Fold:
Amino acid sequence: MMTHLLTTRHDKKESTSRSIENKCNPYNDESYKTFLWWGGLSLIAIFNISLWLWTYLTVGRDERATIQMSPYQKKQLFLSGIYVFVCAYRSILPRIDLERYCLFDTILSSIFLGRLAATIAEISFSAQLALFLYKLGENHGHPMAQSLAVVIVPAITVAQAFCWCGVLTLNHLYHAIEESIWAILGGSLGCSLLSFAWHHSGNENLVRLGCFGSFASILFFSFMIMVDVPMYLARWKQGQKDTTTTSSSSREPITRRHLMPLVRKGSSDAWRRRVVTTSWKIWREETLWLTGYFSSAVWLSLLLVHLPAP
Structure:
């Protein structure tokens, strides 16, 4: 029954997507806005790759430098490289996972490939944050900060598992849970950084770091709980309305018996199905978070390479 439900949902999503594609001419009068946004996103991606290559070629490689790149910075550089290049790939070939929308009909626009790359990149980025916070706590004797640092990567791994559940089942609620985990960690990180400024008021570097870090965390947390999570919850509620005609037996919980057929069906759909559209009506809602994610988050990743824990 669960396999039947998933098949029905995928077929319904596909037919709905195709009807939207036909209704909204992919080359309508507002398509130029989509391509202007995509062009800007691609330029940001090229700029970010250039910044990483410049970092790789210069930081700690000058023989005249007093301090060479530390093992800590080498780890940050490697993890940042993964994040920067994956974000560039996802910028040049953007997609909307659950709706299976993409700009270009190529195998590289596969939802499955994009999600796989994003999973690796986001865990790498979380490892950067964990390394920085753990080093900071170690340098200044903050065991609570070190404990939080240890939790970051496992928590984001769990968040990625929820994201995959959403991609495979077409259920936006899983994405809302994933974004909520990011929001909680972002807020916790901000509180931890603020505590360094509070307890080390005589250290100007720590005060600046704590104030700036907590302010950035507040902005991130606010965006997530006011924009991102509500967006996915609204889509989930709409999806619930769309499936009200299904029988109650079709909405039974996922059990081990249903799991493998569900994974196979969802993975096949994510790998093969692509709905190519340039409609600004479809992409407009995604532009804010995609642009911020592929710019400011990447710059933070690069900054962590240049910013040894004070």
The first strand starts at residue 95 and ends at 96. The radius of gyration is 21 Å.
